[in-house]
Specification:
By secondary structure, the protein is α+β, with helices and mostly antiparallel strands. The chain has two helices and six strands; from the N terminus they run H-H-E-E-E-E-E-E. It has a three-stranded antiparallel beta sheet with strand order 2-1-6. The protein has a three-stranded antiparallel beta sheet with strand order 3-4-5, with no helix packed on it.
Length: 117
């Protein structure tokens, strides 16, 4: 019985969010995601009964339609070259209804500070 109640609550939340244009755009953008090393990508989410929003930075995302979940993957960087490696650093699987926002940010450039180049 508890699983049925949980499914009902998820369906109810999804139906409510279907009227939110920003949320729908966020999901569409994530489904079409292509990594660009010129930017940092992250999502803001609230999982289950967490009190605070959390943020996860990633380089790859996939959507599993059967379960309405997204799988976000973050890769390790080579500390000498700052290039991404094939080694997974972290992975996050969350339901679409737990996603609050998709964030795209140009990385800060500190090369001009204090004469460093």
């Amino acid at each position: 019985m508890g699983a049925d109640v949980q499914k009902y609550k998820e369906m109810e939340k999804r139906l409510t969010l279907m009227h939110d244009k920003n949320w729908l755009k966020t999901l569409e953008d994530l489904k079409k995601f292509r990594y660009d090393k010129e930017y940092n990508f992250s999502i803001t989410y609230k999982k289950d009964n967490q009190k605070k929003n959390r943020r996860f930075t990633f380089q790859e995302v996939s959507f599993v339609e059967e379960t309405n979940t997204f799988i976000f993957i973050s890769y390790k960087e080579n500390w000498e070259t700052s290039e991404l490696t094939d080694e997974v650093s972290d992975r996050l699987t969350i339901k679409d209804i737990e996603i609050i926002n998709f964030n795209v940010k140009k990385p800060d450039n500190y090369t001009d500070l204090n004469g460093f180049n």
